[in-house]
Structures are given as C-alpha cells and as structure tokens.
C-alpha cells in the first residue's frame, strides 16, 4: 500500500517508507506505567505521513532509515493522519542510513503489467469414470502430513 492511499480509521495497513524526521522522545506516565513516545515523518514516492513511535520503537528509528509497518492502524489528530502499529502491528527497520532507499511510486498507466498465470484446466468425470490410480493420486495431492509435535 502507498501512503497516498491511507484513510482515517484504516486497519491492517502495510506501508514502507523512508524516515525524514524524528522528534524528541517524550516520557509519560499513564495508569501508573512509564512510557516513551515520539513521532517520525515517513515518505514514499506518493506522499508522507506521521508515524507514532512507542517505547522501544523510539530507539530503533533514525532519520534515513527505511521502515516497514505491518498490520498498522491509521488515526487522525487535528486533521493530520497518524500511522501507528497499534496493538496488533509491527515495525521493522529494513535498512539503515547508509543504504536507505525510498519506496517506489505506484506504476504508471504505461508500465507493463506482469503476465497472468495460466488458469488451471478443470475436467469433470462421472464417479464411474474415475480409476483407482486417479483416486489415489487425488488423495495424495490433498493430504497433509501432521506430526504430534506440531500441536505441542
């Protein structure tokens, strides 16, 4: 997803961008717990958005870093969009200052589209036309090996 596509109250947002600004870290106390917060501005080829950084995130992000927000949330404060990881999202620093790269713009109308994968050929047979070899092959294609340790 590109920054230009972000909307208030949007959930499940995946965005990459380059960090262009980072504010000073502010400490707060809420419900008896200490915390830290700061804001960063990130950009891609389509726009920029404020990224809220919480606690350990405030130490991970520097100007020039490329960051990736997965499953983020877009809020709005005083008419400005704010991207955050929220309760369920993650923040990943993809590349540091020495090799930062800005996310590319969306493809233009003249950019060729990737070739579509061929659609599978589906044939239907009557139950009496299916051989035992075909049935065994179909069963093995649809089987899943599960070990007891997979559930521990």
Quickly count the helices.
Answer: 2
Shape: globular
Q: Report Rg.
A: 24 Å
Instruction: Give the CATH superfamily of the domain at 3-99.
Output: Nucleic acid-binding proteins
Task: Tell me what the structure shows.
A hairpin with a 2-residue loop joins strand 2 (26-30) and strand 3 (33-44). This protein has 152 residues and is mostly beta strands. The chain has 2 helices and 7 strands. It has helices at residues 57-60, 132-141, and strands at residues 11-22, 26-30, 33-44, 47-54, 66-77, 80-84, 90-95. It has a domain at 3-99: Nucleic acid-binding proteins (OB fold (Dihydrolipoamide Acetyltransferase, E2P), Beta Barrel). The chain has a 5-stranded mixed β-barrel with strand order 1-3-4-6-5. The two termini are 36 Å apart. Residues 99-122 and 137-152 have low confidence and may be disordered.
Summarize the structure.
The chain has 152 residues and is mostly beta strands.
List the main descriptive attributes of the protein structure presented here.
five-stranded mixed beta barrel, 152 residues, globular, disordered C terminus, single chain, mainly beta, 7 strands, 2 helices
Fold blueprint:
Blueprint: E1 11-22, E2 26-30, E3 33-44, E4 47-54, H1 57-60, E5 66-77, E6 80-84, E7 90-95, H2 132-141
Parallel strand pairs: 4-6
Antiparallel strand pairs: 1-3, 1-5, 2-3, 3-4, 5-6, 5-7
């Amino acid at each position: 997803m590109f920054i230009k596509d972000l909307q208030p109250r949007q959930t499940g947002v995946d965005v990459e961008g380059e960090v262009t600004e980072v504010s000073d870290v502010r400490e707060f106390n809420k419900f008896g717990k200490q915390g830290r917060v700061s804001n960063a501005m990130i950009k891609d080829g389509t726009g920029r958005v404020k990224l809220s950084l919480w606690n350990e995130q405030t130490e991970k992000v520097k100007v020039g870093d490329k960051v990736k927000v997965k499953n983020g949330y877009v809020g709005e404060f005083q008419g400005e969009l704010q991207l955050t990881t929220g309760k369920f999202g993650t923040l990943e620093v993809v590349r540091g200052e020495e090799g930062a790269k800005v996310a590319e713009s969306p493809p233009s109308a003249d950019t060729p589209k990737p070739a579509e994968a061929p659609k599978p050929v589906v044939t239907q047979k009557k139950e009496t036309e299916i051989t035992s070899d075909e049935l065994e092959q179909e069963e093995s294609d649809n089987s899943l090996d599960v070990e007891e340790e997979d559930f521990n």
